[in-house]
Amino acid sequence: MVIAYIKEKYGFEEIAKDTREYMSQYESLRASFIMQYEPELLGMYATLPELKGHDEEALKEFMEQLAIREQKAKEIADDKFAIDFHILEKNENGNRMHFYLESRFGYIGGGVSGSGRRMRQRYKKMHKDVYRYYGVSEEDIANETERYRELLTTLAIY
């Protein structure tokens, strides 16, 4: 429903799921969601590694452990953890605007690249409008869910 709204109201097009950009964004977002929502699928990699100091070597080891954790998340089969991810984009006057949408966890993200302050302002207005369209339920408000908090943050920032 949100996808159709963005397409119809703003003229965005969905990019193909077999593109390099889609596959890269899909893998990263899916790994992030696994770590956030079902870390138990990672077994011994479920907990964040410990930072064993503040020197360069300790930081390097920490970052390597994070990379291993992300790779392990990417190796989890889609049938064990699925997401419904879409990328919509619009190119205009050398600028690119895009929305990342994931329906299982209600994620909306995106951005704009290129020059021009006006284009960034237009995108911010679109992003705010999409969040308003997406909305929240009375239950979201009463329980102050993540969806509700994200809506408040988006409306406050944009």
Structure write-up:
With 158 residues, this protein is an alpha+beta fold. Helix content is 52%, strand content 16%. It is built from 6 helices and 4 strands. Strand 2 and strand 3 form a beta hairpin. Helix 1 packs antiparallel against helix 4. The longest helix has 19 residues. The chain is globular. The chain starts with a helix and ends with a helix.
Q: Strand sequence of the main sheet, in spatial order?
A: 1-2-3-4
The percent range for helix content is 40-55%
Mean pLDDT comes to 88
First-last Cα distance: 22 Å
Main beta-sheet annotation: 4 strands, antiparallel
How many beta-strand segments?
4
Written as H for each helix and E for each strand, in order along the chain, the element string is HEHHEEEHHH
Work out the helix count.
Answer: 6
CA radius of gyration is 18 Å
Could you say which overall geometry the principal axes of the C-alpha atoms support?
globular
- Percent strand: 15-25%
| Poorly predicted runs of 5 or more residues | none
Structural class: alpha+beta
Please provide a brief summary of the model.
The protein is α+β, with helices and mostly antiparallel strands and 158 residues long.
Task: Give me the secondary-structure topology.
Layout: H1 2-10, E1 13-14, H2 20-37, H3 56-74, E2 85-92, E3 95-102, E4 107-113, H4 117-134, H5 138-143, H6 146-157
Antiparallel strand pairs: 1-2, 2-3, 3-4
